Amino acid sequence: MPTIIFHSPDGSSHKVDARVGASAMETAVKVGVPGIVAECGGALSCATCHVFVDSAWIAATGIADEFEDEMLDDAETPRTPTSRLSCQIRVTDDLDGLELTIAPEQ
Asked: Which of 6, 47, 81, 104 could tie 71 with a disulfide, CB 3.0–4.6 Å?
């Protein structure tokens, strides 16, 4: 079972077991990782699950598609080159050890 490490804005870290096929957002919400609001439940309509992908993992997670890219433009915290919406990151075995930093404002 892959694990994802979420780094919260308060400096705490949360190592979470993730189910293959779930999204990173679903994984975080299921275990109560603080900081990911996920108002739309993963429907790609709110940008309240904004995370910064650790640069070592960019190739593995891929880049935002056009619609996600537009949503990131409206995110509360300004986007960076490694910004993604965690609802759009699908967990695979290849993402074991993925590190995501939760944006300070959702």
From this structure: 47
Q: Which residues contact 36 (CB under 8 A, 6 or more apart)?
A: 6, 25, 28, 29, 48, 49, 51, 86, 102, 106
Model confidence pLDDT, tens digit, residues 18-61: 999 999 999 999 999 999 999 999 999 999 999 999 999 999 99
* Cβ pair 97, 3 in contact under 8 A: yes
Q: What does pTM read for this prediction?
A: 0.95
CB 44 within 8 A of CB 71: yes
Contact criterion met (CB below 8 Å) for 19 and 39:
no
102: how many CB neighbours lie within 10 A of its CB? Answer: 23
